[in-house]
Amino acid sequence: MLLALNATFAKPTIYILATGGTIAGSSSSALSNRYSSGTVTVDKLIAAVPQINEIATIKGEQVSNIGSQEMNNEVWLKLAKRVNELLASKNVDGIVITHGTDTMEETAYFLNLVVKSDKPIVMVGAMRNSDSLSADGPLNLYNAVNVAMDKEAVGKGVLVVMNDEIHAAREVAKTNTTAVNTFASPNTGKIGTVIYGNAKFYMQPTRKHTKNSDFDITKIESLPRVDILFNHSNDNPDFANIAVKNGAKGIINAGMGNGNPYPSVLEALGNAVKSGVVVVRDSRVGSGETTNLGEVDDVKYGFLTSDNLNAQKARVLLMLSLTKTNDPKKIREYFLTH
């Protein structure tokens, strides 16, 4: 009977994988925006929130220790493969990844497309470094661990937990440079809340992710180059031409309004398609769908459109798509289903 009771109340095992960022940053002043990212190790992050050890068996690993503006494909692949390895074990119940906020949405979406598990994966960071007055990292981390051990988080793909909110990886975006409520899901809204560890879910991601995703990075050691172009009035085709010349396999064009390029850029992108580069029209607006029934004749130019993904996430999806195919019809299908 005693063994049965102990088994019933066994704490879940949650791995915290640290990559750096503001949550692991430090400063000489509690009232300054000047700080160094990625200076606090995973052990110190865990020690700063002793309450998480009361609710779960916590294990920590340092995957990298960088500001997320330094995030790159190599770290993505290393992180994704480690997450897959850990979640394949019956002794691991969930993963929390500490990460800088600058590129958190991109890393979250990448993992959402390549992790092969239903177990919870939660990304978390901070807008104020560990030495700041009212640092937000400790409570964010506590909430993230609670979400990672919540049975309702199973099967929802990669989640981002910040400022008492739960967001789906595909939908979330950083929307403010400094505010603690910077993360939002402009097209769909948050999928849940978590207040001092009490998580509630209200929505369910519907696009393909994790176990149902078409992508697998098990044997992939590198990703193809995909560049993003940001369009503006009185633009020029130079960057489009340079991207092609320098070996880009794909281009995400963040056009004006409904993904509209400047005329000379339009022609340069059309020539890029003729040279074998996959071009996806996106928008610089920040929300809404970039449609293929707008002012641009996508059939004529051979362009694809990004659905409602922002440019940085469209880049992630196109990179992974190009590891499987160059067929525009198949890549279009990925954009409509993932």
UniProtKB/TrEMBL annotation:
A Pfam family hit: Asparaginase
Superkingdom of the organism of origin: Bacteria
GO terms for MF: asparaginase activity
Keywords: Hydrolase
Domain L-asparaginase N-terminal: 14-206
GO BP terms in the entry: asparagine metabolic process
Residues annotated to bind substrate: S68, T101, D102
Domain Asparaginase/glutaminase C-terminal: 225-335
Annotated catalytic residues: T22, T101
Gene3D superfamilies named among the record's database cross-references: 3.40.50.40, L-asparaginase, N-terminal domain
Family: Belongs to the asparaginase 1 family.
NCBIfam families linked: asnASE_II (TIGR00520)
Record protein name field: L-asparagine amidohydrolase
Gene: ansB
